[in-house]
Sequence to fold (640 residues):
Amino acid sequence: MKFPRNLLLVLLLLSPAFCAAQDSDDEILRDALWTRLALAKPPARPTVGLALSGGGARGFAHTGVLESLEYAGFPVDYVAGTSMGALIGALYSSGLSVEEIWKFGLEASDLKVSRDFRSIGLVRLLISDKLLTPAHINKFIQDRFGALTFEKLEKPFACSAMDIRTGEKIVFTEGELAPAVRASVNLPGIFAPVEYRQRYLVDGGVVDFIPVDSARDLGADWVLASVTDRAAERMPENVLMSLLQVIDIRGSLLARSAEKKADFVIKPVVTDISVADFERCGDAGEAGVMEASRRIDAAKEALLIFSGPRLAEKL
Amino acid sequence: MRLAALVLLLLLPSQCFAFFFGGDSDNRALAGLESLRASFNAGDCAAVQRDYDGFLMENPSRRLREAAYGYLGRCYESGGLTDKAISLYKVAIGLYPDNIFFALRLGQIYNRAGFYDSAAPLFLKALDLKKDEIDANVGLARAYSGMGFLGRARDFYSLAVVLQDFNDPAVMREYARCLLKKREWGEASFIASQGRLREPLSVFWPVNQARILAGRGDYSGAVLSLDEALKLGPARGVRLERALYLLLGGRQGQAAEAADAALSEDKADALAATIKALALYSRGEKEKAQPFFAIAEANGGQFTAKLAGSFLECLKNGGVWPCKK
Fold:
């Protein structure tokens, strides 16, 4: 790595973040008010929703974002997720600690989830008139969520899927959790649609990549969106990867308009990780931590500015 | 025959010995290294850089070059020749993989420049070789903290302060800040108590303690802790932080008085104006709060101004949250 001398000098002069620096007035005000907001419960503060985007393996970056939010004491009252965001969101809403969600990601390849992707035989897929059933993904979701309903979750949760016949966005907020999450992560064109309540459901990322509206519909006054950054910048190596990348790019395009509806957006940089790189969930999670921690003070400020009058009324 | 050769070698004059084995050159190289060391210790980095080439001309041994790299690298650093120091340390790390000094220096440069992801592997490598190396633990803690991995940073800060027996105030303060950011109140309180024991006259520790207490919602305790801080050294920032905790603890009247005191010294004090405005607003005197929010909006930093602006906007729309028409 070659560092330009001038840049290094400037950085060396400006950036020793760990050195004891004098707190600015902005920091004193923000940090003091934050102590109040972090401990307050609605209605003493506005309600906060978290919208977790799709993105396959890259979506594991949400776990890193959750870790940073937790360190900051960021309140989260409602969670909405799509595709991988639905899976992470469901785990989080069910009360699983962030540490446990990390473990799930780091063990993703061992959990055989990625085998469903690796085992996709392209020739078989092309010549057969039947789509695949992802046995390992089904088992994983059934094991985790089989006994749960939306009503039993610790935090209100919503997840999105699409009816492949009509193109409608279907938002789940009640009933059994497992089929809803299963539908939300169901890649169209490869895995067979999930049949549920007379619907044929596939991955929600195609119609609702960042479920900001779902978080608001649950009751959130203010929504923070965690969005996996653009589609992987690499040439797909085969037909399957091409298909996944097209879905991903389509989702990213949708995300641009959805992002504008969020009150704050955190976009972990995961461009070098593809949708099916489940062995790299750990890297995606780390990218989430780094980006969220870089933006966390700005997120706190945005929420405080939004909440200020409400907080002051309830002092 | 072998014995005869050995006797001959022993009888050879030293110049010949040096000719065959380079001993004289080694001696000169050793002298050159001594000269570099003396110049370095005297703070004469110009001499170190000037004499370094001459030292290399003596074909010094690998071991001697290792020491010289250390002097030259640190001189590059102190002279602001950071890119040269980086190149030198990279070469040295390749040549002397078991010497943790070069990895530590390079890691510290990266940390200071904010290239934490480049720094972390260097400190990890150093710790592979020496687990209880304090600088490596501190460096890794800083790198992790800089990247936002507060849990990992905490572990390495924790080890470092124990290895230092809590005696390095700079590292103790960094660790305290990390714990505060991570909202790990128990350990933060413990470190604050250790810090106060070692630096009883420092304002940092009672302020830190106040923030821990405020983080737990104990605003009365936070105010008392800041009273201690003010005894050690009155400071505007501490007085206003105290006023904020008074406000958040429901003592609006006292908060407003403290803000008035600061505003009497500087009418444009944006933080004091915000506190005064918030005190009035929370007591329902919203119209009276308006001019103080206006002062804060006009004179405050980015956050203070925007916060004040949100209240002014709200007041325009009737002053009842959610404030939008």
About this structure: The longest helix of chain A spans residues 281-313.
